[in-house]
Amino acid sequence: MPTLESRVDVTSEVFGANRDAMLALLAEHDEQAALAVAGGGERYVARHRARGKLTARERIELLLDRDAPFLELSTLAAWGTQFHVGASIVTGIGVVSGVECVVIAQDPTVRGGTMNPVTLKKNLRALEIARVNRLPVLNLVESGGADLATQADLFIPAGQIFHDLTQLSALGIPTVALVFGNATAGGAYVPGMCDYSVLVDQRAKVFLGGPPLVKMATGEDADDEELGGAAMHSRVSGLSDAFAVDELDCIRIGREIVARLNWRKLGPGPSAAADPPVHDADELLGIASVDLRVPFDPHEVIARVVDGSRFDEYKGEYGTSLVTGWASIHGYPIGILANARGVLFMEEAKKATEFILLANQIDTPLLFLQNTTGYMVGKDYEQAGIIKDGAKMINAVTNSAVPHLTVVMGASYGAGNYGMCGRAYGPRLLFTWPNAKIAVMGPQQLAGVLSIVARQAAEASGQPFDEDADRVRRAEIEEQIERESHAFFNSGKLYDDGIIDPRDTRTVLGIALCAAHSNVVEGRRGFGVFRM
User: pLDDT for 395-414, tens place per residue?
Assistant: First the structure.
């Protein structure tokens, strides 16, 4: 397989400007991520520790195998909302007793670990990742239940957590609840619906109704331990499968449970040489354009992500605005589709469709590297059938059965987002670089379209067109779309699974591919490769 050469000039002014701008964005991201890591802040963390408790992230660190990586997901969930960055829950993929698992840990230092609508969305996404990749789930439970102030947006959809937990069990995907504190009302069903439950003595409180509610409902006097303590559930109700004397014992038991699962991956293991790229990943900081109007060569990105910088390009002389080809990442074979000059023409759409069909024929996962302004518009292209060709590509993406991974490394506009496997098309995992922009179109284009429509409406009605008001309106719309297309904004809404440092792309994709191979890796059958 050919080794990609690099033509990057690290001494150029453009490279230096890109690098400086990307480092500035990464610094902004790290500042926001630090808010999530800090939990509820020093005061509430100190209060939590004074009670002899570990923080959510400390529990995760002790649960994972020594020196094992943890791919945290949706760190900036709830960014830009009224809720705390991180949404009072930590989710991610990590290795426990040699088994890749999805870990879901409530953070009790943030409003008692209560669930708000974004917490729910983040929790459900983690369960979806567990289902599609066939990963056991470890719930680290300590929550005050629902955020009652937002119950109107929470109560009804929150039932899906219980639905998904029981569905995972039915699919043979193990679920474990390690209960470190409160799990009351609806939250009590989490340990109730998991395959395994471990409760910590004098800490776990699992009941549908606490002492005040029981008193009001039945007139009965009962304390926390009688209603839902670890001892009662271990010796009387049978809800608890194991009685833990403290948090460390609970984590130890949880690791033993996972070790006894006899878990086996259904997908093949790495089959190619996993040597590092020839070219330095640090150079990705200067390769990617922060000004998305300036294209960059995706070959330079691929050369710093795939094993040995080896890339067997497919149809390299045809449809050159889309780069396609074969490689491997950490030993896992992969097919890559990467936007080169943003626009998808008819040739690119047909090329992508054929390539996706080929990947399904040979059971090879696909990686989509997005930097697209969408499908080409204009009279000639419409008459030539751009809609039909774009539809073929989107059809192929929709019905492809091999695992898909997506990285947004620049623009993601219009139907290009769909054709390049955006969130709505179910990639196993989707990550963005901090320079990414996701919207129906660029801010200037969208504002310009609305201006043209308004001008035409004025002309049709015989009314004068207010140029001054139009300039103000265009500026306001551009500012709005610029804000709403920002990577932090989209990550806050969980339209990705996290913002990553471009330099970490290879590592993140390696973990993602390894996780995806826990499930069957098999392409769609029933059709051959057809040319269009």
Answer: 999 999 999 999 999 999 99
Sign of the alpha-carbon torsion through 95, 100, 101, 102? positive
pTM above 0.90, yes or no: yes
Hey, is 95 helix, strand or coil? strand
- Taking each helix axis from N to C end, the angle separating 117-133 and 505-516, rounded to the nearest 10 degrees, works out to 60
Can you read off the two tokens belonging to residue 248? 């460390």
Beta-carbon contacts of 478 under 8 Å, excluding residues fewer than 6 positions away, are: 443, 444, 446, 447
Q: Tell me the CA end-to-end span of the chain in Å, nearest whole number.
A: 28
Q: Residues 6 or more apart from 501 whose CB is under 8 A from it?
A: 26, 434
CA dihedral of 122, 127, 128, 130, whole degrees rounded to 10: 130
**Residue closest to 197 by CA, chosen among 231, 142, 243:** 243
Give the percent of the chain with pLDDT over 70.
Answer: 99
pLDDT of residue 530: 59
Could you give the 3-state DSSP secondary structure of residue 137?
strand
Q: Of 77, 192, 83, which is closest to residue 124 (Cα–Cα)?
A: 77
Task: Output the CA torsion 207→212→216→222 (10° steps).
Answer: 70
Outline where DSSP puts E strands in 167-256: 175-184, 196-200, 205-207, 242-244
φ/ψ (deg, to 5) at 174: -65, 145
Q: Are strands 196-200 and 242-244 parallel, antiparallel or unpaired?
A: parallel
Query: Which residues 6+ apart lie within 8 Å of 328 measured at CB?
Result: 270, 271, 272, 273, 274, 306, 307, 310, 334
Greater confidence (440 vs 417) lies with: 417
pLDDT over 90 (residue 152) = no
Token duo for residue 389: 């060709």
